[in-house]
Amino acid sequence: MSLEQEIEKRRTFGIISHPDAGKTTLTEKLLLFGGAIQKAGAVKSSKIKDHARSDWMEIEKQRGISVATSVMGFNYKDVKINLLDTPGHQDFAEDTYRTLTAVDSVILVIDCVKGVEIQTEKLMEVCRMRNTPVICFINKLDREGRDPFELLDEVEEKLNIKVRPLSWPISMGKTFKGVYNLYEKSLTLFTPSKTKVEEDRINVSDIQDPQLDSYVGETNARQLRADVELIEGVYPDFDPTEYLAGKVAPVFFGSAVNNFGVKELLDTFIRIAPPPIPRETTLRIVEPEENKFSGFIFKIHANMDPKHRNRIAFLRICSGKFARGSNYYHVRQEKSLRFSNATAFMAQDRETVDEAWPGDIVGIFDTGNLKIGDTLTEGEKILYTGIPSFSPEIFKEVVNMDAMKTKQLEKGLLQLMEEGVAQLFTYELGKKKVVGVVGALQFEVIQFRLKNEYNATAQFVPQNIYKACWISSHDPKKLAEFIDSKQRHIARDKDDKLVFMAESRAWLQMVQDNFPDIQFHFTSEFKD
Ligand code: G4P
């Protein structure tokens, strides 16, 4: 098969949702359709439930499970689908943000009872930054949920994206009858079943057809006709190019646990979701069809065995063909590396991969050469962009509790930061080290892993910091003046970039007003 054909048949995506909306259930059903698993219940939930806080075994288990289910590749109707798992637990949100840099589109799951929840808003912000195409799946229609029109309005308002329903529910909860596919003009009737794989579609090309009444009842048929009229009047026709530009999200309704509406979603997904897309680098846009291989690392996972420090780096292939055993150029380190042990992810198995194509993810065993954001090429000195760090939410100073183990602590911290577990900020004055995380659970993970894997003892002291803002200015003199006047609050991130550690929202606002020539950025990647 030619490179173009390999690219055309690939779809690389992630599922995002607020915890408990049904991401794991939907993943499992998609794998069922792909034949990657044989029965429901085979996908272990990769989430840490709230009650499992401080349960180390649970954290260790999570690390193990999430390698296995980090990337699930499967084939469906001649399409090679790569599904990238995103941790549902909000304390691991940073990991999810980065995974979103490696996908070409996302499916967003919303619980019809709860509507748009906070975690979804944050994840969608990341999608909006990159104009990632989004398909919405409104789940749990077998429950008494909110009015579908109201849900759609909420999606538009809170997630800042236009929507276009492609299917429409007929009633809900106990009286849920099924969905009407507005695109194909077919009706799928609902029968609760956790094991059913096929759905029966009935062709109802004319919604005025009296037959409809006999399928769903007179009242429901009347309601559906009114709803469809309203939809056609309010929402413009679905335009796939707008979807691909990340401007409009098609919406489906269903019930993942009952395997209802999932096949419909998958069939539409493979038809409209984008194959691997061109990607930006520091120098130019790279097209997937280019013959020369290139890709970037978006995730690093420590090995489970603390005695061996090798790690698995996840490489997203962006162009050309990746061939095992070849030498590739590591742009940051300016050296050539040989990759003889790349692994492909097929469903839950890992197998050695001889070649991989744009859109594919391969796992590389690494002993410390690679870090998140690294670019690999056949020699060209380009760096993939769009893998920024976001300002953490909670900050604590690292205090070494065992002076004999200073080196171990430093090494441990460095490696954990390279894995992207948290972000380290080193103050210019006094070299104080402050770790920033998105969720408090991360501190416990870090402390535990420092002890367990590096034999270092650290304590964390809370800091009064609201946000870490990366700073820049068109005027180097003004920047120097600013640094001078705010010395106590200036730090450097892992890449030595300048960061202003703001103590409160009000104070940050005041400083921004007082220093109009300084730009404050909430992500590490910005255009001046
Ligand atoms: P998550 O990965 O997004 O966190 O959600 P997950 O799939 O684990 O689903 C959360 C809960 O919602 C699960 O129940 C799951 O069975 C249920 N669920 C998923 N889809 C549907 C649906 O269409 N209808 C209804 N009524 N429930 C649904 P649980 O009790 O937390 O777990 P379990 O014991 O059922 O596995």
TrEMBL record:
Give the domain of life.
Bacteria
Keyword entries, A-Z: Cytoplasm, GTP-binding, Nucleotide-binding, Protein biosynthesis
Which InterPro entries does UniProt cross-reference here?
Answer: EF-G-like_DII, EFG_III/V, G_TR_CS, P-loop_NTPase, PrfC, RF3_C, RF3_dom_3_sf, RF3_GTP-bd
Q: Which Gene3D superfamilies match?
A: P-loop containing nucleotide triphosphate hydrolases (3.40.50.300), Peptide chain release factor 3, domain III (3.30.70.3280)
Q: What GO molecular functions are on record for this protein?
A: GTP binding; GTPase activity; translation release factor activity, codon nonspecific; translation release factor activity, codon specific
What's one Pfam family the UniProt record gives for this protein? Answer: GTP_EFTU
**GO cellular component terms, semicolon-separated:** cytosol
Q: Where in the cell is it found?
A: Cytoplasm
Domain (Tr-type G): residue spans on this chain: 8-277
Q: Where are the transmembrane segments?
A: none
Give the residues the record marks as binding GTP.
17-24, 85-89, 139-142
An example GO BP is: regulation of translational termination
Family listed = Belongs to the TRAFAC class translation factor GTPase superfamily. Classic translation factor GTPase family. PrfC subfamily.
Quote the HAMAP family the UniProt record gives. Rel_fac_3
Kindly give the NCBIfam families that the UniProt entry links to this protein.
prfC, PRK00741.1, small_GTP
Query: Any idea what job this protein has?
Result: Increases the formation of ribosomal termination complexes and stimulates activities of RF-1 and RF-2. It binds guanine nucleotides and has strong preference for UGA stop codons. It may interact directly with the ribosome. The stimulation of RF-1 and RF-2 is significantly reduced by GTP and GDP, but not by GMP.
What name has this protein been given in UniProt? Peptide chain release factor 3
Gene name in the database record: prfC
